[in-house]
Task: structure prediction
Amino acid sequence: VLLYLLYYLRDRLHYHDPEQGVLILTAVDSVALLATVVVGGVWSDRVGRRKPFVRWSGVLMAVATGLLAVWQTWPSAIIVAALLGVGLGVFMSVDFALMTDVLPKALDRGKDLGVINVANALPQVAAPALAAPIVTYLGGYRVLYLVSAVIGLAGAVLVQRIRGVE
Result:
């Protein structure tokens, strides 16, 4: 969402000042993220479970991304920014704990965390190469955000397959 936000505001919403719009939406996202990042981690620690928090935060982010595809207005962009911030705040606080909980051996944790880092970075590198043809040839931002929502939802559902962690 954030990678194409400037273009979405400029090309799809025709927002009068897209740079300012990115600033506003990023601020809304950041406030929501900061409000939930600690709460999500503490709550997860208290209940002793990780997967439900990761799964539901992923679902929330997928739904928010899907909203951008079907409700393309400035007010919806503000709501989506808040929802994404809430989802990402909970996700970030709990996902890293979940990842470290499933590492097999203490001796290999450095290597394993390096692999996890590549796995986190690779989609950010590949996304522009995949998104450009979608936006240009396959239906624009509506299709891009629908595809993103489906991929995000698939990721949230696949969290259930993680073994050894609740």
Q: What stands out?
A: The first helix runs from residue 5 to 12. The chain has a mean pLDDT of 91. The chain has six helices and no strands. Helices lie at 5-12, 18-47, 51-70, 74-101, 109-137, 140-158.
